[in-house]
Design goal:
The protein is mainly beta. It has a single domain, classed as Lipocalin, CATH 2.40.128. The protein is built from no helices and 14 strands. It is globular, with a radius of gyration of 16 Å. The chain starts with 10 loop residues before the first strand and ends in a 9-residue tail after the last strand.
Length: 175
């Protein structure tokens, strides 16, 4: 997702392995760091996606279910967390449960028009960007029980977002 306009946001935000850092765009100084729970501690990489808007940072992270083995039968869900862009303080968080195996996981987040839109497995939903309240949720027209939906993209007239998959190499246990 790209931000356009004449007044760029004063922060640059990075996200990796469940950790988000905000840097002052002019000086490079660290403004704040936020780290979510690390439910995928065994994984080499915990997929994390971040969207920066005018006043909020939205973070999409993987949450591993504790049932089953990590690789073969483990399922993953996603957490969407809204942070205050000036302080990194958590404004709200929403766990979205959808049964996906760790080998076939992907999720997409898009923020536009006061809504956080999410695809996760065969689910497409919209939440309020202000408070995380689910506005609607439904099965995707792309749902097919025989095919896993690893590459659903979301788009509005203003934004486009690509999915973040977790691959089997991301899910390996450390040696």
């Amino acid at each position: 997702m790209y931000r356009t306009g004449t007044n760029p946001h004063p922060l640059v935000v990075s996200a990796f392995n469940g950790k988000v850092a905000a840097y002052d765009r002019a000086s490079g100084r660290t403004v704040w760091v936020w780290e979510g729970e690390r439910p995928c501690k065994e994984a080499h990489v915990q997929p994390t996606h971040v969207v920066l808007t005018g006043t909020q940072v939205f973070v999409l992270t993987v949450v591993r279910d504790e049932n089953g083995g990590f690789l073969s039968r483990a399922t993953v869900h996603v957490a969407v967390t809204a942070l205050d862009d000036a302080t990194g303080r958590v404004l709200w968080s929403q766990l979205v449960r959808r049964e996906q195996t760790v080998y076939a996981f992907a999720a997409t987040i898009l923020v536009d028009g006061g809504q956080v839109m999410l695809s996760h497995g065969d689910l497409i939903m919209a939440m309020s960007a202000e408070n995380g309240q689910v506005q609607w949720s439904r099965a995707s027209e792309h749902a097919d029980e025989e095919v896993f939906l690893q590459s659903i993209e979301l788009a509005t007239s203003e934004q486009t977002s690509k999915p973040i998959p977790i691959t089997p190499s991301d899910a390996r246990q450390p040696n």
